[in-house]
Specification:
It catalyses: Na(+)(in) + 2 H(+)(out) = Na(+)(out) + 2 H(+)(in). It is found in: Cell inner membrane; Cell membrane. It is a multi-pass membrane protein. Keywords: Antiport, Cell membrane, Ion transport, Membrane, Sodium, Sodium transport, Transmembrane, Transmembrane helix, Transport. By secondary structure, the protein is mainly alpha-helical. The protein has one domain: Up-down Bundle (Na+/H+ antiporter like fold), CATH 1.20.1530.10. 68% of the residues lie in helices and 2% in strands. The protein has 16 helices and four strands. The strands form two sheets. A two-stranded parallel ribbon has the order 1-4. A hairpin with an 8-residue loop joins strand 2 and strand 3. The longest helix has 32 residues. It is globular.
Length: 435
């Protein structure tokens, strides 16, 4: 008789070790993101707040190409394209060569990401029905998960979260971000230029042709990527979409002429290894610095912001919506596939992970600017809601996960055992690890 499928069961050792390396980089990036956001908040609310705004609003770039953008816009449109390029590479690799190429493993993070986006959006709408005009434009703000922020919190609370849960959190956040890009492209594109959109396909096709031929020369690929970004920006579609589409053209496995899948990492992993430090260490922290600086205006201003239905909807969406959506979707997968949680884990672990999913920041701030505009009162109130909701989700997740940390420590010790000294922990070589 076939044993039931396991949710959050251990995957392969190859995938676990690769994910561990990725998470180490993202954890460092999360610390830098926290630092950038904190500096921006302190500076914006100090007596030198005007200097911060002047720096953020400084325009650079060629006006003849309509690229005389503010530094804040360059961070949101330009640097985040790098972030989404890496996210696209990660997602493609997971579904082509990673453990998620198996449909039974892929269904859980996809369902959880969808649930974790739909429920927060619904709660935001409920809190803003009948509100002031234009408030509902921000329905997608609480739908995103910031993996760098979540991992930074894990590093601070020093929890021994099992590899399977960390992998799920990373994959959930990547799928979440890619779905958010689809939402941005469809719902936040106001004016579409078909001509420029068609033009963007030409350098993108050339880029795809070169990478399919395993060309790695940056002096060929980078100009094509920049041209794709410029034309996408001019088309009216948010320019970060270019990063995702370019990533999807990159091959994951080696060609047969180069030895096939067993000959080592493919071009996608090569690019990811090279570009992820730039994304985590520069692009996202700089974006956080230029986006998180909101002048609260003292306790009275903070109270006014937190009392706005927009901020309330965002906070409830991030904290309650994410927890309900991710946990509920996981329960539905278990219910309708008759899968069972891994024997070492329980539903409190799922709830703790779902609360971590409520740490929205990078993409939430991006959607806020698209929804309300950078100079509006709603924009400032929404940013306060994002920060407050993210902090609340982090504190609740820390409490739940710390209460379970003794169990996690035991699992971590088991995963580190290597009885036969072959470099692979024995727990990954048991048949049950593949179930």
């Amino acid at each position: 008789m076939t044993s039931p499928a396991r949710l959050f069961g251990r995957g392969s050792w190859t995938e676990a070790s690769r994910i561990a390396a990725v998470l180490r980089q993202e954890t460092v990036g999360g610390a830098l993101l926290l630092a950038g956001a904190a500096i921006a908040l302190v500076w914006a609310n100090s007596s030198w707040g005007g200097a911060y705004e002047s720096l953020r609003d400084t325009r650079v770039g060629p006006a003849s190409l309509h690229l005389d953008l503010t530094l804040g816009t360059w961070a949101a449109d330009g640097l985040l394209a790098i972030f989404f390029f890496v996210a696209g590479l990660e997602l493609k690799r997971e579904f082509v060569a990673g453990d998620l190429r198996e449909p039974r493993r892929a269904v859980l993070p996809i369902a959880a990401a969808v649930g974790g986006m739909a429920v927060p959006a619904l709660l935001f709408v409920l809190f803003n029905l009948g509100g002031r005009e234009g408030a509902l434009r921000g329905w997608a703000i609480p739908s995103a998960t910031d993996i760098a922020f979540a991992l930074a919190v894990l590093a601070v609370i020093s929890t021994h979260l099992p590899t399977a849960l960390r992998t799920f959190l990373l994959t959930l956040a990547v799928v979440d971000d890619l779905l958010a890009i689809v939402v941005i492209a469809i719902f936040y594109t106001e004016q579409l230029s078909i001509g420029f959109l068609a033009l963007s396909l030409l350098p993108m096709a050339a880029f795809g042709l070169l990478v399919q031929r395993r060309v790695r020369s940056w002096w060929l690929l980078l100009p094509l990527a920049v041209l794709t970004w410029v034309f996408m920006h001019e088309s009216g579609v948010h320019a970060t979409v270019a990063g995702v589409l370019l990533a999807f053209t990159v091959p994951v496995v080696r060609s047969d002429a180069a030895g096939g899948p067993d000959a080592g990492p493919g071009l996608a992993e090569h690019f990811e290894h090279r570009i992820r430090p730039l994304s985590a260490g520069v692009a996202v922290p700089v974006f956080a610095f230029f986006s998180a600086g909101v002048a609260v205006g003292g306790l009275s201003g903070l109270g006014a912001s937190l009392g706005d239905s927009i901020a309330i909807g965002i906070m409830v969406g991030l904290v309650l919506g994410k927890a309900i959506g991710i946990t509920g979707a996981t329960w539905l997968v278990a219910r309708f596939t008759r899968a069972q949680l891994d024997e070492d884990l329980g539903w409190p672990d799922v709830v703790g992970l779902a609360l971590l999913g409520g740490m929205g920041f990078t993409v939430s701030l991006l959607i806020t600017e698209l929804a309300y505009g950078a100079e509006s009162e709603s924009y400032d109130h929404a940013k306060v809601g994002i920060l407050a909701g993210t902090v609340a989700a982090a504190l609740l997740a820390a409490v739940v996960l710390r209460l379970r940390n003794r169990r996690y420590r035991r699992i971590a010790e088991e995963e580190s055992v290597d009885a036969d000294a072959d470099g692979i922990p024995d727990v990954y070589q048991r048949p049950s690890a593949e179930s």
